Amino acid sequence: ERTARCWLIGPIVSGDMQDLLTQYAERAGLNYSWEARSAAVPRDYWVYVPSNSEKSEIRRLGRALKDVGVDNYPINDGELKGHLSLGLFKQKQRAEAVVEQVSKLGFSAAVLTRQISRQEDWMKLQAYDDTPVREQLGESLSTISLQPIACPNAITRVDTLKTELIPNVAG
Q: Which residues are 127's β-sheet partners?
């Protein structure tokens, strides 16, 4: 008797990848369902120099940074109020390079990763112990994860013409 194995595959952020996985499951006759999830992902990276938040300290630190050629400005509100901003960066590597550069000048800097919410689709796939899911999908999975999960009592199989509930064989 074949034993059911279930997988969580994702995150899928491309319609092409979703189509590829759906076609794979349907060709193989496997049960599957799609689940939309909201995930926090990095929006940008804020480099700042911590301060004790006293105005005189902020001014002194700001001048000292400017004296060595580092542009900065005081942060007047929000979660970093009272610290000095060295800028926002889209790439984490660029933000980390600024932190390294400033630390070589004798200052302590840090990076705050600001998040944004993004919708991601995840596939729940019911296969069997003898179905080589990972091997069959191979290169398609290079940028997404394939995690084993407990099989639910049923996984909804989504066909192009109808939606039906198919019981889990392992029950």
A: 5
